[in-house]
Amino acid sequence: MTKGVFIPIRLDSERLSRKSLKLVDGKPILYHMFNRIMKSNFISSKKKIVVCTTNETTDDALEKVVIKYGASVYRGSKDDLIKRFYNANKIFNFKKILLVDGDDPLIFPEHIDKVMEKQKNSTFECVYTNNLPFGLNIKAVTSSALEKVYNNYLSTKNDTGFGLYFTDTNIIKSKKINNFKFHSSLSKARLTLDYIEDFRLIKKIITDMYSKRNCDYSFDKFEKYIINNFHILNINLFRQNENLQRSKSKVNLKYKNKDKVLKIIY
């Protein structure tokens, strides 16, 4: 069964422009994410990693960087990510799709394997992690799930909160994995990339842990690093509440259920 990865990214970000191309250890931060994905047992080729970006000229540079790595690119709607994914899969025809937020470069291969493995032997159309530190959660969906969401979503501006269509509606059958355990120092960690302070933290982590060849991408190794360097989490922690309030104000997602129009509560 064909498996692949869809990563939504655009360079014209409101808070930190061209963040995916910022250099860490001489490479675009996007490459560090790609390297982590390629450590998964379920992703067999760089070509199976698809950056789903926009048709805007501002994303021309992104396309060049992605192709240089050896990954794939699909270009489509700027604000409608559901449509972007759906049309991308008309080309790539993946049966199982890992959806990774382009703002989350520190995802872990073992978590990818867990959701993909869980979905492989189940009837769930979406399997997703729920209680990992902020910026590490991922989801895997089937092509049928993507089609069902496409046929029932109503809000064409869904670049913020698109994943809720898969996890917080009755459109598809989903399974939540929320039994991860980790040190309390990570419970409030902010490991996503939206602000310059986020970049400083992620750059510090990558430089310290992942700048050498054959580095250890295990979550256990990362957890031990954070326990010994917990103070670095203060670099961007003050941004978390601001970010959550911003997301809450932007999420306005509706979908249809038979003859009713429903709204996702975020």
What does this entry look like structurally?
With 266 residues, the protein is of the alpha/beta class. It has a single domain, classed as Alpha-Beta Complex (Spore Coat Polysaccharide Biosynthesis Protein SpsA, Chain A), CATH 3.90.550. Helix content is 35%, strand content 17%. It has helices at 29-37, 60-69, 81-92, 109-120, 143-152, 164-167, 196-209, 219-228, 240-250, and strands at residues 3-8, 23-24, 27-28, 49-54, 72-76, 96-99, 126-129, 139-142, 174-177, 254-257, 260-263. Strands 5-4-1-6-8-7-9 form a seven-stranded mixed beta sheet, with helices on both faces. A two-stranded antiparallel sheet has the order 2-3. It has a two-stranded antiparallel ribbon with strand order 10-11. β4, α2 and β5 (72-76) form a beta-alpha-beta unit. The longest helix has 14 residues, at 196-209. The protein is globular and about 55 Å long.
Short description:
This protein is α/β, with parallel strands linked by helices and 266 residues long. 35% of the residues lie in helices and 17% in strands.
